[in-house]
């Protein structure tokens, strides 16, 4: 059977910096994806609880963050996604979010996974940097034990020595055997975790290369963190793409996906 000729995009800044910046980025992403006919879900975190250092910017918190995400959803009519780190966040998050994300470092936390699954909302599970692709089948079974919603799995690289990640593209097909869509996180896969001392580094120049490879390997979606000015972003700037890179890159990904379907 030929692959589907479409893919979907999950994209936005790593963290909500303020309402104006978030809305500006979301509006630009919607314009780009509308022009290319690509399904788009906006992503931004209201709290980055797993930062490298105590001084790292974490975001506005759940109350103000969900308010901003609700405004994005209402103003632009796009679905929104964010991550939860604690069970006591789940109920409030489910009132706003269209997709709830389990962070990579928490992907084996059974009680958190079950709490999210019980909301009935679609779940995006980031594969832990410490897991093999086939290990995700057990996590998916946890979700299916309490929910009929089909989860998504997001590949974001595997630890390769210290402060480095590597991607095994065989994992896309292996994880698709669970029956779940598999998303490739191109920008987190070029992150250098903790590689800049008090923050993570990154090699954003390689993110487009990996995104193209992932689509060629059959990924159902692509996850890209973007910013107007990555060098001055408050979180994950070194691995985030500039917004103005998106039109050309997404057009390339569409062409690769279409070629696979011919």
TrEMBL record:
What does it catalyze?
Answer: D-arabinose 5-phosphate + phosphoenolpyruvate + H2O = 3-deoxy-alpha-D-manno-2-octulosonate-8-phosphate + phosphate
Q: Name one GO cellular component term.
A: cytoplasm
Compartments annotated for it: namely:
Cytoplasm
Pfam family of the protein (one): DAHP_synth_1
Which pathway is it part of? Bacterial outer membrane biogenesis; lipopolysaccharide biosynthesis; Carbohydrate biosynthesis; 3-deoxy-D-manno-octulosonate biosynthesis; 3-deoxy-D-manno-octulosonate from D-ribulose 5-phosphate: step 2/3
> Looking at the record's lineage, which domain of life comes first?
Bacteria
> Does the record carry DNA-binding as a key word?
no
What are its GO biological-process terms?
Answer: keto-3-deoxy-D-manno-octulosonic acid biosynthetic process
- Name the UniProt key words of this record, in alphabetical order: Cytoplasm, Lipopolysaccharide biosynthesis, Transferase
Show the NCBIfam families listed in the entry. KDO8P_synth, PRK05198.1
Name of this chain's protein: 2-dehydro-3-deoxyphosphooctonate aldolase
Q: Source species, please?
A: Desulfosarcina alkanivorans
């Amino acid at each position: 059977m030929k692959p589907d000729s479409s893919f979907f995009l999950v994209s936005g800044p790593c963290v909500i910096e303020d309402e104006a910046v978030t809305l500006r980025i979301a509006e630009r992403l919607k314009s780009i994806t509308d022009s290319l006919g690509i399904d788009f879900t906006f992503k931004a975190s209201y709290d980055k609880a797993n930062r490298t250092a105590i001084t790292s910017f974490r975001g506005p918190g759940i109350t103000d963050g969900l308010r901003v995400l609700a405004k994005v959803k209402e103003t632009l009519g796009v679905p929104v996604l964010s991550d939860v780190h604690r069970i006591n966040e789940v109920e409030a998050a489910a009132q706003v979010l269209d997709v709830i994300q389990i962070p990579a470092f928490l992907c084996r936390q059974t009680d958190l996974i079950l709490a999210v699954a019980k909301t009935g909302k679609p779940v995006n599970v980031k594969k832990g940097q410490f897991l093999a692709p086939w290990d995700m089948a057990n996590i998916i079974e946890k979700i299916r034990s309490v929910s009929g919603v089909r989860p998504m799995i997001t590949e974001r690289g595997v630890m390769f020595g210290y402060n480095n990640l590597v991607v095994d593209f065989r994992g896309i097909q292996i994880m698709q055997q669970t029956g779940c869509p598999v998303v490739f996180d191109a920008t987190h896969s070029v992150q250098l975790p903790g590689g800049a001392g008090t923050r993570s580094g990154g090699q954003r120049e390689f993110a487009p290369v990996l995104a193209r490879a992932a689509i060629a390997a059959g990924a159902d979606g692509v996850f890209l963190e973007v910013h107007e000015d990555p060098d001055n972003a408050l979180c994950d700037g070194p691995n985030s793409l500039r917004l103005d890179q998106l039109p050309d890159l997404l057009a390339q990904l569409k062409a690769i996906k279409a070629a696979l379907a011919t």
